[in-house]
Amino acid sequence: MCVPSAVYRELAVTSLLPSLLAIPWIGVEDPTPARLESVVSDEAFSVLGAGEQAAIALALDHPGSVLLSNDRQVQRLATGRGVTVINIPAFLLACKLAGVLDRAALAEITAALQAKDYYGFRRDVLKLLLD
Questions:
Q1: Is 100 helix (H, G, I), strand (E, B) or coil?
Q2: Coil, helix or strand for 69?
Q3: CA separation for the pair 121, 111 (Å, rounded)
Q4: Contacts for 126-130: CB closer than 8 Å, 24+ residues apart
Q5: Ranges assigned E (strand) in the chain
Q6: Which residues neighbour 41 within 8 Å (Cβ) at sequence distance 6 or greater?
Q7: Structural domain boundaries in the chain
Q8: Which residues of 47-62 are buried (b: 16+ CB within 10 A; e: fewer)?
Q9: Using CA atoms, how far apart are residues 30 and 10, in angstroms rounded to an integer?
Q10: Residues 6+ away with beta carbon under 8 Å from 51
């Protein structure tokens, strides 16, 4: 798993990224300059932030990768370029089903997302994640 450095800088203020980077198969990587330029120069992508553009470019650099985003515009533009995109609840559910996250970890993550990022989970989705 690779995290674009533009996204890393935004997330570095939280404790989540340092703990993720302790996992050997997660790293910080920039997309290739040519790939990033192809995304940045595409007028359709000009409505996105630098981190979102870099994340899409990085996903394009790694065919078969999956981009995690809840932004509908990011999802539409990325899938238009052939990138597979999943949202936060789907990612957390996959982690639960794979046994990567237990109920306690999911409760902590969902609470942090709600409190720090003002992320709203639908009641049925939260129940599915935490039951």
A1: coil
A2: coil
A3: 10
A4: 128/93, 129/89, 129/92, 129/93, 129/96, 130/103, 130/106
A5: 2-3, 27-28, 66-68, 84-86
A6: none
A7: 2-86, 89-130
A8: ebeebbbbbbbbbbbe
A9: 14
A10: 4, 6, 7, 10
pLDDT (tens digit per residue) in 19-37 = 666 777 777 788 999 999 9
pLDDT in tens, 76-109: 999 999 999 999 999 899 989 989 889 999 999 9
* The token pair that represents 66 in the structure block: 């999956």
Cα torsion 9, 110, 105, 2: sign: negative
Query: 67 forms bridges with which residues in the sheet?
Result: 85
CATH topology (fold) of 2-86: Rossmann fold (3.40.50)
Q: How many residues does the chain have?
A: 131
Q: What is d(CA 60, CA 54) in angstroms, rounded to the nearest whole number?
A: 10
